Amino acid sequence: xxxxxVCTTTTYSQIDNVHTPQNTPRERPHHIEPWMPHRFWxxxxxxxxxxxxxxxxxxxxxxxxxMDRLFFQNLLMYVSDISEGKEQISLLQIMLTQHVSATALIxxxxxxxxxxxxxxxxxxxxxxxxxxxxxxxxxxxxxKYMSVEDWEDEDVQERIGMWKKKDL
Length: 168
Fold this sequence. Notes:
Blueprint: E1 6-10, E2 15-19, E3 38-42, H1 69-83, H2 91-99, H3 117-135, H4 148-152, H5 154-165
Antiparallel strand pairs: 1-2, 1-3
Helix pairs in contact: 2-3
């Protein structure tokens, strides 16, 4: 946490936390276990812009489904623009962006009797939405949220193009 406040809801018990530079310094980051349900949301009490660092998993060259800086940059800037009224929400765009990074929403996380359906139903829905988004010409990364250098990078263009050919 560098500035401001951000909130998280984590675990199947849906535990809420408010993170500030004072209670979540760089030396003691908030850790979310892999595959654990979680979500970030803006703090209603924040009095300044929020800046926080996120690290998901390594970014090896041979990994197709990257949850890297570009994924977070695109998704978080898009969601920010939606919340500020600068963009209309596109469920298809969000589902495509998440799908190509191998992330999924969880439906009803506290309903433990659903078991793995909490993952499989949203994953299937997301997959269908991603196909529709691609058929409509949407791209998993959005040019407006990237620098010219990032957008024109050969690896980025390959990532954008590979989803036209690849089975989702």
